[in-house]
Amino acid sequence: MNPIDPIPGQPDFGAISAGFxxxxxxxxxxxxxxxLCANLPGVxxxxxxxxxxxxxxxxxxxxQQDIAAMQQNMAAMQQDIAAMxxxxxxxxxxxxxxxxxxxxxxxxxxxxxxxKVALPDAELxxxxxxxxxxxxxxxxxxxxxxxxxxxxxxxxxxxALEQPATGVVAEKKKRxxxxxxxxxxxxxx
Length: 189
Known about the structure:
7 helices
């Protein structure tokens, strides 16, 4: 039985009072007192209390449904946010890939021009760092500048080109010449 359903077979205090009146006139005081029982809050207004409990129960059910709907909406929003983050990461990866391709194309063209450089005072076409697309800092301006570079500068330029920076200075210079297109000999990597 639902706790807010009316209790079946409730007594009619008015009929009970009338019955006591009919039984005996000596019981009049008892009849009057028993009739006053209908004025008790828990007795006379049981139907009203049950109706209020039903209304509260309906409000609670509606609130639970609203909460469930909000939870579903929040879950959907979280999925949308996760999808947007993934799309943003994919877009950033594509932009990085595009930058690397443009840089690779630019560097291929520069290597083609640098391949024709033979004299120490011949100008070099600068290469760009594959990771950033920016012109490499301290890139030698002339072919002869490579032979005058110190070890630290060589390491910085080789690392910017994503080339190994190991070995003695002479090996690093050969590796740099090869990486920028002016070397025609193979070097150990």
